[in-house]
Amino acid sequence: MRKILVTGASGLIGARLLQCLDKENEVFAVARAGSVPVATHTLNIDLGQPWSATALPKDIDIIVHLAQSNHYREFPQRAEDVFNVNTASTVRLLAYAREIGVKQFVLASSGGIYGTRSDSFSEDEEIVAKGELGFYLGTRLCSELLSDSYASFMNVISLRFFFAYGPGQRSQMLIPRLVSSVRNGTPIRLIGEDGLKINPIYVDDAVRAVQAAMVLQGSHKINVAGPEVLSLRKIAETIGDALGRRPEFEILPASGSADLIADIRRMSFMLDEPGIFFANGIKAYISSLSV
What we know:
Low-confidence stretches: none
Distance between the termini: 35 Å
CATH architecture: 3-Layer(aba) Sandwich
CATH class: Alpha Beta
CATH superfamily: NAD(P)-binding Rossmann-like Domain
CATH topology: Rossmann fold
Number of helices: 8
Mean pLDDT: 92
Helix content: 25-40%
Strand order of the largest sheet: 3-2-1-4-5-6-11
Number of domains: 1
Largest sheet: 7 strands, parallel
Order of helices and strands: EHEEEHEHEEHEEEHEEHEHH
Radius of gyration: 19 Å
Number of strands: 13
Shape: globular
Strand content: 15-25%
């Protein structure tokens, strides 16, 4: 029986991951008090506040660190919470993992650390930290860099997620906000005629990638994104088709390329090839809103 510790257990990917882990795993779910993840054991720990690894079990095989601060937009007011959840807790968990002999550490990062451009981003290119990256993404990049130092003690797999979406996602995230805008007739701002291009990933594809990373040998950085590159206009039109409503747009002048597209060849080879296209994923998400 594998003993697995999952942080961010009440989030979009964490909650779905817990549902997919079979009963032969002993799962310890770390979540804030008030959330009710489905797990063998629930540990109510707020990673944004002072906490100690003494509250964690002494025997764990795999750590899946998915937690992220809910206050990522609130800089500088909630900068300390963002840093504590995204970076300080990562360091504390890595130290804890080394001390108890954890074999596998899966870290949730963000594709946003690349910046933007018209071409896709691959994992092999150098990432240059710049001030315009912003505080939230800066903490994500720091967590990746710090976790590299522990690769001699355990397998460390950093997963760079690109616009995950699906049932249960918080309303302030990109795809839920677009659904709300289309449903309410609120104009969606596009930079240029079509807006930025991304390859969003449905939560089930994202979870399959996490599960594959849990048994992957060696330490790696891997993009996790969907099978289609879509413009913001196309995404909104696909949402409109699912809702039976035509989206409204506000076109702003373009001042250069600002796309955020993942090269998913490494993901497809080392983890799992994403197979859920946006038209199907968004229907499942919209259906969940009426339940």
